Amino acid sequence: MRQRIARVVTMMAAAGLAVPAIAALVDKKPPYFASLQAKEVRMRTGPGRTYPVSWSYVRPGLPVRVIELFKEKGSGAQWRKVEDPDGTQGWMQANLVSESRAAMVKGEIAELRDTPRFAGKVNWRAAPGVVGRISKCGNGWCYLDVMGRGGFVEVSRLWGVDPTETID
Questions:
Q1: Which stretches of the chain score pLDDT less than 70?
Q2: pTM of the entire structure?
Q3: Whole-angstrom Cα distance, residue 59 to residue 141?
Q4: Cβ distance 122 to 113 under 8 Å?
């Protein structure tokens, strides 16, 4: 009997932890940044497979800004209207857009530092167009990881994060 109660309590606790996480994804309101999840993602002119493809992206992890959500009637398919780093807008299937955060270096070569300050030692440099994962941001700096080589970069040098955004 105690084992049964323990299992029920464990299941309830797990469900309690999962519900807020699921709710956060469902309740996320545009605009917000995300990234491409698949090896190939097609951007369409409208929210549905019957709309023509306007672009084909072959760069997993590319940051995008989600600006609108759409759910098809009948099939229930989820679509996201996104904007890419060049400003091109179109629709993508929601399952091809990840909540994982990424950023792209913009402008000139960016210095990846060991600490989030200008006096920090430069560990790496990244050219414009380089994409990496963001793990934390605050006070005008983000930690950018480019295939295992990371460092802090000024937010103003990145596309894929808002200037005042904090990420833990």
A1: 1-27
A2: 0.81
A3: 25
A4: yes
